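Internal tracking record. Fields below are filled automatically when a chain is submitted to the structure queue. Please do not edit lines marked as system-generated. If the sequence contains nonstandard residues, flag them in the REMARKS field before resubmitting.
Queue: standard
Priority: normal
Entity type: single polypeptide chain
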Amino acid sequence: MAGDADLWRVYLSGEIHSDWREEIAAGVSEAGLPVRIDAPVTHHEASDDCGVVILGKEPDKFWHDHKGAKINAIRTRTLIEKADIVVVRFGEKYRQWNAAFDAGMAAALGKALIVIHQDEHAHALKEVDGAALAVCKDTSQVIDILRYVINGELTGYTGG
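SYSTEM-GENERATED OUTPUT FOLLOWS
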């Protein structure tokens, strides 16, 4: 196993309604890459309610959400700051304002940023894409990028 100095930290931000994180984790494992994967809390209700569970109930939904967002930000900020690479996936079903914020934070910190989304979101995400070092359509492209940048291996390349 690689030592901590050789370990790449990859933070996976974005939508929580599909198994894209598990796909990347499986691909990283299968490729034997020295990667530690970090992510936000992806249990939707726990993420929404952590503030009031820990700090006390709020009658106003704004303050309920505010408490949760701040506690979640402790985790998110810390893990993005520690990351070597930040991958942000924009899903099909919901607008992930938090994912856009994470992408902006990663860019502001000078982190290597990889974005995943489909073509129909290209216009809405043009500024995010402009800050990214790669824009992917699926998780297999992310795994190929990680394999290339970590090991210098270019899958499927036969020369040019």
